[in-house]
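Students often ask why we bother encoding 3D structure as a string. The short answer is that it lets us treat folding as translation between two languages. Here is a chain of 297 residues written in the first language.
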Amino acid sequence: MLDVLARFANGRGFWPAIPAVAFLTVLMVIPLVLLLSFGFSDIVVSRGVIVSQDFTLDHLTKILGDRLYLLTFQRSINLSLSVTALCLIFGFPVAYLYLRSGTFARRAILIAVIAPLLTSGIVRTYAWIVILGGQRGIVNRTLLDLGLIDAPLRILNTHWAVLIGMTQVHLPLMILPLIAVMTRHDKALDEASANLGASRLQTLRHVILPMSVPGIGTGATLVFTLSYTTFVVPQLLGGGNYLNAATMAFEQMVYSLEWSKGAVTSTLLLVTCIFFIGLFTWASQAATRWIRQEGVA
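And here it is in the second language, the structure alphabet:
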């Protein structure tokens, strides 16, 4: 204890972190406190000024008892899980290809993966509007020119458009953790597997895949979190009528000016997101411990 106090007195320990703590307090802690105060208060506004603000749980109980909110959060969870699964399906082969490639190919793959992150998500979403648009969209125009369809497909402003757009936007966040984990594993294990007569597929299944579990867990956590809380992609590709938890909170806050309901929706979104982060982290750690105990990796 005396050692800790001495470090504080000498300017070490906590003091260098004061700017970061102040930054987080102003931009994260205070907004969260205001959010909670709006969600659990009965606010009376007159001429743009809050006249009274009394504590209440009515907004929370009404939302928890409303089936619309249950279905909306269920849709958000299902969409996020679908995006996470698709990102894993498409991202794992890319990471494995990176592992098996030479120096030049690795650089090309990294550039292809990182380049989309240098572009705004809004710009990429608008690009999907051009691709998936009506009769003049690239997809429909190509299919019509090839004679594969007689009438334009309705892809934009549907659930499928949101799923496609979110998968593409968040795919690099699955690939990069997988690459980081795969490139750290000992190549001698691959050679030992080959010397024992295992094929590349068997080596992938019994050596590389088990050792990639931490990367899968990290990538799944990142993709699910961003898919669960994203607002731009559903709003643009869903045509403004696609309702998930994030768009519901936005509409309540901005359009209907129901600040209390919007604050409760945002709070529930934050709490459930933290729960799923903990769940993914626990599952990843449990799987890693099981693999080590069983001697798979």
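Translate back mentally: The mean pLDDT is 83. Keep this in mind for the problem set.
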